[in-house]
Amino acid sequence: MKIGEVARRADVSVKTVRHYESLGLVSSARLSNGYRDYAEDAPRMVAEAHALSHAGIRLEQTRPFLDCLAAGSENADDCVATRPAYRAAIQELTERIGELERRRAALAALLEAAEARHDPGCALLGTAREQGHDEPSMQKPRASEGIQA
């Protein structure tokens, strides 16, 4: 099967198929004309790796799932060897969520501090109020408005 057919059946780009092959997730033989020739199960392998990647499992961690399919399992996660990859991905996501929550809290604290020290004499704030805004606009001043010093 040619690479374009694998990509079409797996609903990915040809570039994605090449990338997965470079990672060793799928393999091909070379025909005499230099074209890649993929096995009939290649679209399923590519689609599975792609779906797992979008679910949060790093491509490098999809090997046990693909091995499970290659061994004849109906589902890529039927094999016990896939469970550690799920657990690792869940742990990574939990850590990332924690980091994002810390960043959000830090930004909220910065905003709260900025609002607490509200300076009614701020030139930008005065200009924003004149234009009917509660907060300063981040737009560049128009040439006709000039820049206030």
Biggest sheet strand order reads: 1-2
Radius of gyration: 27 Å
CATH level 1 class label: Mainly Alpha
Task: Note the overall shape.
Answer: elongated
Q: Helix proportion of residues, in percent?
A: 40-55%
Question: What proportion strand?
Answer: under 5%
Show unreliable segments: none
CATH architecture: Orthogonal Bundle
The DSSP helix count reads 6
Number of domains: 1
Mean pLDDT: 87
Structural class: mainly alpha
The ordered H/E elements are HHEEHHHH
Biggest sheet, in brief? 2 strands, antiparallel
* Through-space gap between termini: 69 Å
SS elements, strand count: 2
What attributes characterize this protein structure?
mainly alpha; 149 residues; two-stranded antiparallel ribbon; Multidrug-efflux Transporter Regulator, Chain: A, Domain 2; 4% strand; 6 helices
Can you offer a commentary on this structure?
The protein has 149 residues and is mainly α. It has one domain (3-112): Multidrug-efflux Transporter Regulator, Chain: A, Domain 2. The protein is built from six helices and two strands, in the order H-H-E-E-H-H-H-H. It has helices spanning 3-10, 14-22, 42-55, 63-70, 83-116, 123-130, and strands spanning 28-30, 36-38. A two-stranded antiparallel ribbon has the order 1-2. Strand 1 and strand 2 (36-38) form a beta hairpin. The radius of gyration is 27 Å and the shape is elongated.
